[in-house]
């Protein structure tokens, strides 16, 4: 299966406050890891998709927000299901700590990392997921985001300067528009050449099979 010079670029539409996106990323990492040497020929391109564009940097009650959107009992049901699934992937979901906050600046930070320090982008995404879901961090707070960027191996000064500006705002907004135009209305979603190939947080075996088939097709 190994093909020298062939790089498979997968677009990962995601939001850092989406529990299924966290689960999906862990499963995708495992699926890619099973490919062995061929994993080096696969590149993930993070794409922004704000699930709650109206949320702000001011923390709100996540349970109330979830139940307003999905109905009474939705928050508890989500927690029960994801606690079990997350444990299988080493994720410690703490929904009792999670906050309703906006993710616009977190997405700008990811886009900046991707454009300037691509090898650190996955580490930054992981840091954001863990901070939000395991520690109840406010991932809209600039000081928190700078700390997480540094923890992922990025320069504090560069992250701070980025957040103080409006750079990558257009990229974040355009990603969501592009996703919707491509028929993506929920995340996670992995796409290739504008077409969704993995909708949702599929199991690892399914992800591995899809990626292997696509890689073989692209490699010819």
Put the structure in a nutshell.
About 50% of the residues lie in helices and about 10% in strands.
Tell me the structural class.
alpha+beta
Question: Rg, please?
Answer: 17 Å
Q: What's the helix count?
A: 9
Taken from the alpha-carbon principal axes, the silhouette is globular
**Percentage of residues in helical conformation:** 40-55%
The N- to C-terminal Cα distance equals: 10 Å
Main sheet, how many strands, which sense, barrel?
A: 4 strands, mixed
Which sequence of strands runs across the widest sheet?
Answer: 2-1-5-6
Tell me how many strands there are: 6
Elements, N to C (H/E): EHEEHHEHHHHHEEH
**What is the beta-strand fraction?**
5-15%
Unreliable residue stretches: none
For the residues shown, what is the average pLDDT? 93
Note down, in words, how this protein is organized.
The protein is an alpha+beta fold. The chain is built from nine helices and six strands. Strands 2-1-5-6 form a four-stranded mixed β-sheet. Strands 3-4 form a two-stranded antiparallel sheet. Helix 1 links the parallel strand 1 and strand 2. The chain is globular. The N and C termini lie close together (10 Å). The mean pLDDT is 93.
Key terms for this structure?
12% strand; alpha+beta; 52% helix; 9 helices; two-stranded antiparallel ribbon; globular; four-stranded mixed β-sheet; 220 residues
